[in-house]
Amino acid sequence: MVGMTQLAPTVTAAPPAITYPWGEAMPATGERLDLRRGLHWVRMPMPFALNHINLWVLDDHDADGAGTQPTWTIVDAGVATETIRSAWQTLFAGPLAERPLSRMLVTHMHPDHVGNAQWLIDHFSAPQQPARLWMSATDHFAAQLACQSTTGFGGERAAAFFMSHGLRQPDDVAKIRARTGYFSSLVPEVPHAYRRLMDGMTVHIGERDWQCMAGHGHSPEHIALFNERDGLLISGDMLLPKISTNVSVLDLEPEADALGLFLASLDRMRALPDDTLALPSHGLPFTGIHTRIQQLHDHHAERLDEVLAACAAKPSSAAEMLPVLFKRQLDLHQTTFAMGESVAHLNHLWHQGALKREIDGEGVWRFSPG
């Protein structure tokens, strides 16, 4: 069938700790790559520095997994751009044409994951039987809130929060204040009705049972999916093969220990077999999850040591940590994410008692050894 690719994994005699069973192979936009029976990979372009997202299409039978009509469950939806919507239309006119969508499962509330959820439901459900959104309650509510008001990386509250952590350049602050429609421009609508996903819950999709694993720190209640029988983990953004997941503290929860929550969530994944095939939202499918988890722990430990050393040299703000944590030039979009990460590292050390924090005369939080 045009637009459908079946590839066999490459086999190596002595694989390294982290391996990529399909090498550099990936589906082209508008095509699907079949990884296992009933498990398909599609890949969409995104208009950011992180320029792609992996989305997963699973064979199903109906919205409850108990019927007889063949359908699709889609895991994550992509940002609401015309490019991605056109790619979905190509897929449903070709490789996905034989079935309707019965379930839209979203790992978490960020725009690249929930952005097209309502659009996919509207366009590709069976006639008279709309697909249902499946998502954690916390992230569903967070996505609805973000669509209705400005949270996180734009608007007056975000500008005030970043200013309280030392970001004071007038042009940057003005641009952050002006980003009042950032989330809703990427997520025009979040489905109102949904089925709740919870930690430990089992979801039957097609021939597989998937256990929900809640993760924290990247989003309020991220849901990864583990299939024990076949050793599969749809890891979302919680476990990526090469880049470090963004872990940010934002204005809505300014004292959060997001990094502590994230690291604890990673440790829960150590209980999974090391040869589990991880299906990440960004990067390539990989094995060697224990090695990757340790790499991420080591990465953050190094960053925390650098932050401690900088704060020991002088009381420092999150903005002053940007060149410590990020060695490259950042544009404004990247700076807002970097500020969230900087506060996350400082807050983690503050919660551990390694740092204390005080407001200086300009209203900026400064951190120094506790």
Automatic annotation (TrEMBL):
Pfam families per the UniProt record, alphabetical: B_lactamase-like_C, Lactamase_B
Entry keyword annotation includes Nucleus: no
InterPro entries: B_lactamase-like_C, Metallo-B-lactamas, RibonucZ/Hydroxyglut_hydro, Sec-metab_biosynth-thioest, WH-like_DNA-bd_sf
Signal peptide: none
GO molecular function: hydrolase activity
Protein keywords: Hydrolase
Domain Metallo-beta-lactamase: 52-282
Keyword Hydrolase: yes
Full protein name: Glyoxylase-like metal-dependent hydrolase (Beta-lactamase superfamily II)
